[in-house]
Design a protein that fits this description.
It contains 1 helix and 33 strands. By secondary structure, the protein is an all-beta fold. The chain has a single domain, classed as 7 Propeller (Methylamine Dehydrogenase, Chain H). The chain is globular. This is WD40 repeat domain-containing protein.
Amino acid sequence: MSPSVCIRIGLAGVAMVVLALAGIAAAQTLVKAKLATASPLDLPDYLVPITDPDTGATIVRITTPGPLGAGLACQRAYCTHRYSSAQAWNADQTLLLIANGCNGLCFLDGKTYAPLFRRQREDECEWHPRDPERMICVIGRKISLWTPRTNAEEIMLTAEGYRGLQFGPGKGNPSRDGRRIAVRGTRADGAVVAFAFDLANRQKFPDIEVGKLPGRDGVCEISPLGGYIRCSRWVDGKDEAFIFTVAGDLVQSWTEHHRPSHGDMTVDADGREVYVGISKADPDIYQVIKRRLDDGMVTALAPRGEASHASTRAIDRPGWVILSYGGDPSEIAQLPKFAPFAREVIALRIDGSGEFRRIAHTRNVSHNYWSETHASPSPDGSQIIWSSNWGVPGGPVFDFVTRLDHLDQTSALSR
């Protein structure tokens, strides 16, 4: 039997057992890591599980162009989950949402990936992180809780005196307990504002007049513990970020370009809320970093490289980030100071130790936005969804799931 490794959760009191990968006898660290070449592998057939020749994990291709069944159908160009920082699975992983390139919001069985049903909505909707039956939706003046299986909806707020409310837009997530969200919209006097809303108490927090910040509108999102709102702004070609309390007090201004961005928020082992992503400014340009929301302190996590997106959607398994790497392996092989990953998905510990696990070689070549990998884990970290054109630029972009929960854990490393 192949040895396996189990990633330990970083927060005290959280049970150990996370991402087990066959074929790895001991923890790997970035300082000793070398570029790994993907073994030859034909495109897996739709819904036919195969064994990853490099990790021993199971890979399943879960989308394919054309009809899937149960009224679901994928377009040819791409058919994928929404985004790296969007939770693809519901809280108990019984449902999986395919939102891009499908004929509506397409719901699959969360473990077999068989097509189940589809719905049509114009709202921005994200899974409730604790209630597996419901999604949190925002549109116009309305915030609601929606049950996809039955199509039932409960309106939580009708915001009189506002219009154009958006959940993010595009990158909104609720707080880790599902109580709070942040929305952005326009007040009746024309001011662009953001505010937090507590769904449990139906409480609206004060307006933050983000339109008075320099630049043009970006994304506003609530922090994992629900105490901060992070708003990005485009200022003279730079993507800057501003951190507010939910009461509207400004606590941080990150005026460097994308330092970081293309990432996600989580709580680290110290109990501090952090944003983990890719920096595009000195002194850590193109490195993976985490940055604390309360004081802006930066910790470098991985050296300069081709990391494109970061996800901490394994909300029940904090302490790790799932990274999508692009790039050309032949080029990365000539850059010994770069992170030794190309066309690969890895799990990286966010404590600065450099400990990581290889998840999958994506065999994905750069073509356009829709062909980006956008890897995202399930809430418990046992499954990772990622996208690939399987080496064909302009070819169909499929979604794949790497399953980690079936592997033997009897020899798991725990520390």
